[in-house]
Amino acid sequence: MIGIKSYGAYLPRYLLPRELIGKAWEFPVVPGTKAVAMADEDSLTMAVEAGLDALSGFDPKTVDGLFYASTTQVYTEKDSASLIATVLDMREDIITTDFTDSLKAGTTAVARAFDTIKANKDIKSILVIAADTRAPEPSTMWEYGFADGAAALLIAEEDNLPLSIDDYYSVSANVTGPWKRADKDHYIRTFEVKMDTKFYFENITKVMAEILKRNNLKPEEISAAAYYYNNPRMHGRVSKIMKFAGGVAQNSVFFQLGDLGTPMPFILLIGALRRPKPEAKIIMAGFGDGADALLMQVRDRDALRNLGKTRLGFTGHQKSMKSLKNYNKFLDFKEVLEKDRYKRKSSPVTIWRDTASIYKWYGVKCNNCGAIQYPDMLRSCYVCRADDQLERVKLSLKGTIFTYTLDHLVGGSYLDIPVPRCVIDLDGGGRVLLNMTEIEKPEENVQIGMKVELTFRKEHEGAEFKNYYWKCRPERGRP
To answer: Any idea where the domains of the chain sit in the sequence?
Structure first.
């Protein structure tokens, strides 16, 4: 049996009320909020967070591959999946692939993971992660919709799985929009929204109708349908065309979180699995230059419920989200305003050499006295001074603030200050110095003894290269 063994998700800390967009541009107000990534986040850092959530309780070295889907890749000639797999501390002898340039990249990646596992006896599991941070053009309707988030599905072949993948069906279509030229366009373009809508209806209903036909199923036999949409009216119309019963089509995302892009079908599916029915049949569908539909069935209801209890997932992240109070903060997060930015120096070779410490988050333990230290730079223990007694150990992603200072000049600017620079005692041993993110009013809210989580974030682009490292944040409830 091939299916979903685990899932995970990530939603940024902040929500932008759409009312603030309407007031900024004197537009008619669209209700609801949308998820907004911070300035130190991108699709890659969010993918890491979703991967950590999905692999909670599993050894990452048992997974045989990682497929990464996004329309907002941070590089065009560098495999992001390899970097994500490195940060998640997966093995080197795995398969990694990026799926990009289409909103259906996530569902396509799941289908390809299914095929790969089915065809190769040596590959038993593949982690599929989808993430997007699409930039909407200011003062357009795109700004009401485009939102940020990530989700992950662990596809595996085992005798007993919570959710099986029974079939999939895909169509390809050369649509007229939307599009973005890689060499010229910063924002999404389109010829005619009505034509975009026409192609959406044709493709998304075609793949779901065909998957039903191929498996001799009627619409009333489907318990949940998690299909991509970017407009609630379009979502309801698709449900009517497909003749789904009330409550089957999952529509709990747009008004709360926005149009998440590639990970949206995954997020909708995760939401549908909160209260699974025994033997329920589920459809997940993605759209973009065609469409994919996957037919799934609940095989172990209790296992699915347990996954929901042991992961932050969709609802866990939602509970810890906060609303922004002004539109200018959103512009700052998205770096929309042109201005001179401080450029730091960097050494990609040094980062490559110290990958185990910087990305995989390993320290060393002294076999003579048991002290754990970070980073892995010396041959002598800093406590007992014993030579050549150090062994590499995995460090925790949780800890407690030992001490801290508030820095008013970070990155050569006085923007968004002060930044807490925290000395953290990690759970299980080790002491590290990290900047804090996701903190408001640090003068009041940062305290010695405060519990924190570590999160993988964007640092800067020194040497014209995107540099990442770990930061700490107030606890959001990660297991």
So the answer is: 2-333, 348-474
